[in-house]
Write a structure and sequence with these properties.
By secondary structure, this protein is an alpha/beta fold. It is built from 16 helices and 15 strands.
Amino acid sequence: MNASKILQVLALGRVSLVRDVPVARTSSQAALCNFLKGELDSIREAGTWKSERIIISPQSAFINVSSQKDKVLNFCANNYLGLSSHPEVVAAAKKAIDTHGAGLSSVRFICGTQDIHKELEKKIAKFHDREDAILYTSCFDSNAGFFETLLSPEDAVISDELNHASIIDGIRLCKAERLRYNHRNMEALEKILKETQKSRFRLIATDGVFSMDGNVAPLKDICDLADRYNALVFVDDCHSAGFFGKTGRGTEEYTETRGRPDVISSTLGKAMGGASGGYTTGPKQIIDLLRNKSRPYLFSNSLPPPVVATSSKAFDLITETAELVERLAVNTKLFRTRMIEAGFNVLGDKDHPICPVLLGDAKLASAFADGMLQEGIFVIGFSYPVVPKGKARIRVQLSAGHTLQDVNRAVDAFITIGRRIKVIG
């Protein structure tokens, strides 16, 4: 039967490719599933079950959720600059499909590099004032491919204990000596630097901004210690590149350390258009080595053209003007000021748009988020294992896409629910 005949038969409904009866499980599979059922039940009982609300609209300040009749205000996206559905960003994606296709069906070094990939890498390097940059399908992949490629058993990597999972997993893949220092504790970091002076190379790895708490790495102190003890500095800037600092150049701009970190990794899936993708930027020799030896780069398909185009347009928009960065800063200040005045415990740096509202109990955080949705505000409760036990929270994220009226409405809803369930007086 040829392809056209098969399609005709399927269209007439005479052949079904979906089984109507569940596939019988093997005894080993059944045993595993029974074991997992108990673990899943314990997650539900602990109040840490993570349900996925279904969005039926583009990502924006206002979104449609399948469970709600009316649009709701979204205060939990990484859409810091409101560019995920920006008309120029969407138009760039559509144009790229017409000019460069939907995908490459190849890794970069075979036949998966187009002119737009190289153009975006140049924009990224220029944006960060670095020599070169390399694209990945995600920042998780960029971190997974970095440490293993660069470090050997003669080296040491020194990591903040609260670094992102992608840094932790990336470090696990390398053969260097692995050490951790207490969160943002410079005395602990210096102690390790003193103890590892016989290592060939030492690399300090830190998040620029720690996403669960919204606090900023003491990057100036880290760089000072690195200079004193002849170490390198790696910064994951996913939650600051593009929107934090006076012109959005991230943690190094905010901490007045521009150019001092040796390597920066970040994402294209948050402020920079919100689609997907990540990158590493730094000295050309490091980037060249990653192109030749980094496994996630060598064995993953190229970023699709529409994703490349959206990110490229996002870089254009934020390079032209700091208007969105400034608007985000105003929204952040308003939210933090009103929430603290209302009696909430808001964690994080006073200038950062990640604003975790600490509640403590996991079930309370989940119930609080459900109440907020009924008030037309989309937020999510974060609990273990995403955050430590006893430190459940609502992680609010401001966006330049929010108006001041939107921010005030969100705070009013927090106050309403907070008083109803006696979180505040």
